[in-house]
Fold these 3 entries.
Entry 1:
Amino acid sequence: MRYMLMQAYGAVELEGCLPMSEWAPEDVRAHIDFQHALNTELLDSGELVDAQGLAGPELATFVVSDGVHPARIIDGPYPGSKELLAGYRLVDVDSLDRALEIAARSSAAPGPGGAPIQQPIEVRQVLAAPDPEV
């Protein structure tokens, strides 16, 4: 089963945690090293399909279309938003329990001073498209 593990930033992470742009360089490096190590472990086990960090909301663009008229393109930033999707992992695992285990490890990634950041991870199963012949 495939699950998308979406990493939010700015919701309920570590109390008083600064934005990563304000972390000490060694804390940023420790956080990134943790993410790379977890990805390597999941690659080696055959469970990682893809993992990516995403650009900040200041670079976001929304596209809205009715399929007839020209699409509306709406650019950020969106200063009213207090959280953003920071990145994701797509995993192919045997069970929801395993996806939750991976999400819990990711949530505990180190932040400032090495303290677990407690980053919220949304876990959603990736659904297969319906069979067109049915």
Note: Helices lie at 25-44, 96-107.
Entry 2:
Amino acid sequence: MALTEGLECITLRRIAGELDVRPGLISHYFPAVDDLVAEAYGTAAGSELDELLPADRADATCTQHLARFFALAAGETYDDISRLWLNARHLSRYRPALCARVTTQEAAWRDRFEGHIRDGVARGEFRTDDPMVTAMQILVVLDGLGVLVNSGDTADSPPEVLRMPATTAERELGLEPGSLSPPTSD
């Protein structure tokens, strides 16, 4: 419901109806709907982070993991979650529990991304003087591009615009242009 209709459509009664249980069962675990909304958002955003940028990266180079990240994040599969992030950020202005969860998720994303960059620097794959600032620059560009999904403009966007997060990462990490592009099949 949060992904397809928006966080503001979540009510205790509606969730109880969807699950075919009494509303009291839902309110036992989530006394206020804002707690349920925050949990729904946090679970979705946390799952997205684990899928897009797993903490365990022993199976490939840091560059390969980052290329995989950009290939997945730019795909239609994650359009709904991009809309959810926008929705959560907007509603968090008015909902303290959601604001706390958005802040926690943003920190988790920033920390995971920064850790990945630090690993790449330590392995000699990436070059940057400040991994935290670099992580934030890349994430800000990625978030900015996420706005296009909300307006439906991605189909009409030039490929260069859609590649901006990867292009920014390549530049900021001292990588060759195109090194974060998905492999092409000949």
Note: DSSP finds ten helices and no strands in the chain.
Entry 3:
Amino acid sequence: MLVGEVRDRDTAQIAVQASLTGHLVLSTLHTNDAANAVTRLVDIGIEPYKIAASLRGVVAQRLMRKLCPTCKEVWVESVPEKLEKWVPRGTPLYRAVGCSDCAMTGYRGRFSIVEVLTVTPEVERLIGAGATADRIAEVAHASGMGGLWESGVAHILRGESSLDELMRVVDVPFEGDDVGEPVLGARLAAGVAQPASGQSRATAASREANATPGSSGLEPESFDLLDNLLAGQKVTRVKRKVLLVDDEDSLRRVMKDLLEREGYIVSEARDGVQALDQVDRTGPDVIVLDLNLPGLDGYGVLSHLRSRPATADIPVVVLTAKGDEDNEVRVFELGADDFLTKPFRARALSARLDAVLGRRRSNS
């Protein structure tokens, strides 16, 4: 049985019911990676135990551009330190140049990178228990699942595409060992980076989810305890996480650089569907949301966020070129916390985020 796309509860229920009654069902679903297919089905309205019983596998796919074989050339610059785990020093890599054969783009053709999540008995138990996508992915990786990033790296090492193209398509995996001591200490106090012995990550994540939205979830005593643990080291408070949702890559990069200099941890999304996936994955403290997005627009994202108890209180700053009064009234009626019109001054965005988060803290 082939279902073109699962995008609503009725379609999902039909697909799951057909699977439970013995049919092989193939379909597509918009998610950020394989593990988040489970999160999306739950979000649509399917009970976790039904997903566990019916789901047998998920294939996540992204398309990467293939280097033009006519003009590609060896890339002689050193690999960034954060990528040396996957691309050792001295590995021959290639970069795009541009010629008449590829219309001066440097790329000709595309290929897919994939990750395949097989629902093993352990993964099935996690899905039925309502585990997070991160926990499901962690267990799947431990069982041998390769991620989108690893699939892309394999193509890079074969000279089929460039490192820049891979980083455009897939985010570099987060490495906990790269976090500085002050931030790591703050995450330890929050109880989500390294659960105590015998405690599952799902339990720690659950505690984080139960914290007041828009706040760090920490009591003042946590910082006193942390001071003792770090033996007098200077402690930095938990960094705020912000999700940037905008389809303009250049603008997103500028905003990311600005906010990272201000001490924010920044994640990104290029469209509305990806934004909802990132919200589930990263649990941002605040969202900067463009209205004009491909597929699911900003109005739909905002409406969806406010309709879910888990995301209803996440502050949202709307960023748009539509500065008319009717549009501003509409986004506030949908539950936006602030409204910023493009173009804007760089410091204005940081000031708006500080103000919104400050109001949330004072109201919590």
Note: The longest helix spans residues 346-363.
